[in-house]
Amino acid sequence: MVTEDRSPVATPAKPGVSAGLRVRVDQDACTGDGLCVQLAPSVFEFDVDGLAYVKDDAGELQTTGGAYVPVPLPLVDAVVDAADECPGTCIYVERPDGTLEAGGPLG
Ligand code: SF4
């Protein structure tokens, strides 16, 4: 009997980078320099206050401070790079279990 493999396929963009990541910005520490907006413009955008916020997969800006959005798999590299290079150390990329994948003051 042939059984069909229905296991989900998740291909991390970078070795060691897990799928199912989510990202948030701590606006209290954002410098407004715009590095994240340059690196991943479909995930980060400035609001009228000049600080970066995250956008959902429909492009809706999440203007509640600290709101999370899922990281689209093709953008994992760009979002992780933004978190690694964020001058305010205020981008948090978290795994499904809440542990930090990248960013934050200790990232
Ligand atoms: S890179 Fe960091 S400090 Fe700069 S705008 Fe984005 S969230 Fe703010």
TrEMBL record:
It comes from the Bacteria. Pfam families: Fer4_15. Residues 21-49 form the 4Fe-4S ferredoxin-type domain. Keywords: 4Fe-4S, Electron transport, Iron, Iron-sulfur, Metal-binding, Transport. InterPro entries: 3Fe4S_ferredoxin, 4Fe4S_Fe-S-bd, ET_Ferredoxin. Its cofactor is [4Fe-4S] cluster. SUPFAM superfamilies: 4Fe-4S ferredoxins (SSF54862). PANTHER family: FERREDOXIN. Ferredoxins are iron-sulfur proteins that transfer electrons in a wide variety of metabolic reactions. This is Ferredoxin. It comes from Candidatus Frankia alpina.
